[in-house]
Amino acid sequence: MLWARVLMHLTTSVNEEVLTQNQMLTLQVQELKRLLGGRLRYSVSFKMQMARLGRKLTAAALERACIAIRPNTVLGWFSKLVKQKYDHSEKRQPGRPRIRAEVEQLIVRLAIENPRWGPKRIVGMLDHLGIKVCTQTVVNVLKRHGIRPGPAPGKGRGMTWNEFIAVHKALIVATDFFTAEVLTLRGLVTYYVLFFIDLDTRIVRIAGITRNPNEMWMVRMARNLTMDDEPLFIGKKYLIHDGDTKFCEQYKRILRDAGIKCKKTLPYCPDMNAYAERWIRSIRSECLDHVILLGEGSLRRAVSQYVEHYNAERPHQGMDNQVLSAQDNRESVDQDQHQNTQAAANKDIAGLVIERKERLGGLLATYKRKQ
């Protein structure tokens, strides 16, 4: 049986060679692990190859073959490889598709413009508009945009001051003082300007300018404002003012007799009279901060010029960039007709002639089309 002996010799020599190679590989891997120190990071291709090879070995053989890693790690890689074959999660999105962007924007608009509306109320309004969505969809949209839904029916919340003003502004007039330093022969003199602003139309009226706003002067201002031919308080019921002692009891009594209730704001709460405070900032930043007032006449001229500019020439962002005196005309014009007019004006812009009207030497300016 010579051939059997030769075969056994070859098998033994091959096994000894493979064992020697494995021992050398083992020593090299151990030395690499010692030099690297820390956790080894394996590539994806290495994991896949090890998973395929490990599938062919028994548990005992796999344990002997795994030097740098554990057998359970190889088995875990193989399980993951099998799962990836049947995993199609990247090709589809979980859950129902999102609603259209236009509907989502409409939901956000309804929630912002009506903070007291709950999700069901918004769903009802959308249904009235022919848009079908469920309540949970509205809740999810509001949550994505960081909007807190309105209260449940019967659990209303308190009305904020801004909401109160918006509801009742057609009945409210606000008033306040601002001061101006005037350069005279006796030096700087402080003048007090009393003004009123209609919260609905934003029209401003200067009641008076004085150096000494005492009780007698305030009573005279109240009587002037409550005359029959004075349009300021027509249809109004409330007057907002701060706690300044200039608004004396005799002044309030005259207004009460005329049907106007005075509402005093809380201390250190300028937001409660925000319209008046904002107008003071406007007249200062746009006019008074840029002129040196020489005498009372200079102050009266600057204030009157600015008020006329504010009421009749200046566009207002809070009123859709319209001039205050043109509000009635603007409301009577149909929206489609207004858009058509704008479109026609844009077509012949090349031949358009613009006129500039100046006040106070160009400090205040407005533009209009030349007829």
Structural class category: alpha/beta
Helix amount: 40-55%
Oligomer classification: single chain
Largest sheet descriptor = 5 strands, mixed
Individual helix count: 14
Low-pLDDT residue spans: 329-338
Could you tell me the strand content as a percent range? 15-25%
From the 3D structure, determine the CATH topology of the domain at 166-328: Nucleotidyltransferase, domain 5
Shape type: elongated
Q: From the alpha-carbon coordinates, what is the Rg to the nearest angstrom? A: 41 Å
What would CATH call the homologous superfamily of the domain at 166-328? Ribonuclease H-like superfamily/Ribonuclease H
Give a brief rundown of this model.
The protein has helices at residues 2-36, 44-54, 59-65, 71-86, 101-113, 119-128, 135-144, 161-168, 215-225, 249-257, 274-286, 296-312, 327-332, 335-347; strands at residues 172-184, 187-198, 204-210, 238-241, 261-264, 315-316, 322-323, 354-359, 364-369.
Q: Overview of this structure, please?
A:
The protein contains 14 helices and nine strands. The chain starts with a helix and ends with a strand. Helix 6 (119-128) packs across helix 7 (135-144). Among the domains are: 43-79; 101-144; 166-328, Ribonuclease H-like superfamily/Ribonuclease H (Nucleotidyltransferase, domain 5), CATH 3.30.420.10. Residues 329-338 have low confidence and may be disordered. With 371 residues, the protein is of the alpha/beta class. The chain has a five-stranded mixed β-sheet, with helices on both faces. It has a two-stranded antiparallel sheet with strand order 6-7. Strands 8-9 form a two-stranded antiparallel ribbon.
